[in-house]
């Protein structure tokens, strides 16, 4: 008599990405033997994000060495969609690098996960917010181009987050203490 066998279920993309990140972290924790091995190992960049409006969370490796991971970029584009309309835009991968660099600038000992207030914003949403908010929303906002994000990092004073972003001189940095967020973008270097 033969028993029916069941095939293992295919792992979810989230589980795969989680295991990949764990493997990368484990590899880093174990260290690499020899200087040449260290020099040839690609640098891995990852992000942890919590969206304040959709209540979604994402944690993934988005780049390895000079290569962005297309599936991860797609996941981040969807995560940072216009939370008013659901429209998904193309987010500038350099914005992810900027978030990663800000996190590195702050050093260890601070929370890993950014809180996202706003990512991509459709032109329609941007126009509606300009009309209803009485200012504070730029007519040609870089949010519409996927080049801007509004963030905070729980446990890190907002001014410290702003200063870390400013120190990189890598784009625009807006400071909104009343609304409790910092705007960063990959546009020209400027501050407000």
Give a nutshell description of this structure.
36% of the residues lie in helices and 21% in strands. By secondary structure, it is α+β, with helices and mostly antiparallel strands.
**Computed Rg:** 19 Å
The helical percent reads: 25-40%
According to DSSP, the number of beta strands is: 8
Average predicted confidence as pLDDT: 83
Strand percentage lies at 15-25%
Q: What is the H/E order?
A: HHEEEHHEHEHEEE
Q: Could you give a short account of the major beta sheet?
A: 8 strands, mixed
Number of alpha- plus pi-helical segments: 6
Principal-axis shape: globular
- Report how far apart the termini are: 76 Å
Structural class assignment: alpha+beta
Across the major sheet, the strand order is 3-2-1-4-5-7-6-8
Which regions have little confidence, pLDDT < 50, spanning 5+ residues?
1-40
Describe this structure in words.
With about 190 residues, the protein is of the alpha+beta class. The protein has six helices and eight strands; from the N terminus they run ααβββααβαβαβββ. It has an eight-stranded mixed beta sheet with strand order 3-2-1-4-5-7-6-8, with helices on both faces. Helix 4 crosses helix 6. The chain is globular.
Break the fold down into its secondary structure elements and pairings.
Blueprint: H1 13-30, H2 35-40, E1 44-51, E2 57-64, E3 67-68, H3 70-79, H4 93-106, E4 114-118, H5 123-132, E5 148-152, H6 158-168, E6 172-176, E7 181-185, E8 190-191
Parallel strand pairs: 1-4, 6-8
Antiparallel strand pairs: 1-2, 2-3, 4-5, 5-7, 6-7
Helix pairs in contact: 4-6
């Amino acid at each position: 008599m033969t028993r029916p066998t069941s095939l293992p279920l295919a792992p979810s993309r989230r589980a795969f990405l989680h295991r990949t990140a764990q493997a990368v972290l484990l590899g880093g924790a174990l260290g690499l033997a020899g200087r040449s091995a260290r020099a040839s190992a690609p640098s891995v960049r990852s992000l942890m994000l919590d969206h304040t409006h959709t209540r979604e969370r994402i944690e993934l490796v988005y780049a390895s060495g000079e290569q962005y991971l297309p599936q991860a970029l797609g996941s981040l584009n969807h995560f940072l969609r216009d939370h008013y309309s659901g429209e998904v835009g193309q987010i500038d991968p350099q914005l992810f690098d900027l978030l990663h660099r800000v996190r590195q600038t702050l050093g260890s000992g601070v929370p890993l996960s950014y809180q996202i207030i706003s990512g991509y914003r459709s032109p329609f949403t941007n126009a509606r917010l300009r009309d209803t908010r009485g200012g504070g929303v730029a007519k040609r906002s870089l949010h519409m181009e996927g080049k801007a994000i509004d963030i905070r990092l729980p446990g890190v004073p907002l001014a410290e987050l702003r200063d870390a972003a400013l120190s990189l001189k890598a784009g625009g940095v807006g400071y909104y203490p009343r609304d409790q967020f910092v705007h960063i973008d990959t546009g020209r270097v400027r501050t407000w």
